[in-house]
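Help needed: design a sequence for this.
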């Protein structure tokens, strides 16, 4: 057990050393990393506010659109639809274990129940739940991120103190801003190539 603990400690210290050496602190890189994680993952966690506290569930979202809005489907009579109708806010949480990355998106949220939206955002695989297609019981949830918290060891988004803080971005009329004073847009972040950075096989997310 003592040897195992020592190896684990050395692995953690090595991970920290590599992470500190390759850290990137600019907002553009953080936004690029956030988009990459959100586009890569098939599922995320949707958190809404119920009458008794936070309510969370795993959902299958569409990839972010050009405004970085995320669309997903649910039953018109579902708990999350009722909570979003009352609160108009939601939290999306993406986690990518293989890249030691996570994104927390604080969003404004709205329900779309028009036929065009239901047809546009209905995934073919959802026929398992709605065999007749996007009928009246199917409704779309649109989540538009207003704040992002990003931590990504794979791409070097590891602000100080290492593993204890995340990179914060806020949406403004001009784009996204955080540490820098010049806003960045989702368009420029999409054009920026992802920085793939190797890291030790065993890694830790840290407390973010």
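Sure. Designed sequence:
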């Amino acid at each position: 057990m003592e040897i195992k603990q020592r190896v684990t400690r050395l692995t953690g210290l090595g991970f920290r050393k590599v992470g500190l050496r390759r850290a990137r602190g600019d907002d553009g890189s953080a936004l690029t990393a956030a988009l990459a994680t959100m586009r890569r993952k098939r599922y995320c966690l949707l958190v809404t506010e119920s009458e008794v506290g936070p309510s969370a569930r795993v959902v299958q979202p569409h990839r972010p659109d050009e405004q970085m809005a995320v669309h997903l489907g649910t039953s018109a009579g579902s708990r999350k639809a009722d909570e979003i109708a009352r609160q108009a806010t939601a939290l999306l949480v993406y986690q990518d274990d293989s890249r030691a990355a996570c994104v927390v998106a604080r969003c404004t949220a709205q329900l779309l129940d028009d036929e065009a939206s239901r047809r546009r955002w209905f995934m073919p695989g959802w026929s398992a739940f709605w065999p007749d297609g996007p009928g009246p019981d199917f409704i779309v949830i649109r989540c538009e991120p207003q704040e992002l918290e990003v931590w990504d060891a794979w791409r070097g988004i590891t602000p100080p103190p290492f593993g204890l803080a995340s990179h914060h971005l806020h949406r403004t009329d001009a784009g996204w801003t955080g540490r820098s004073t010049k806003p960045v847009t989702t368009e420029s972040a999409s054009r920026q190539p992802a920085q793939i950075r190797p890291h030790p096989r065993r890694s830790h997310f840290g407390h973010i």
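The first helix runs from residue 2 to 21.
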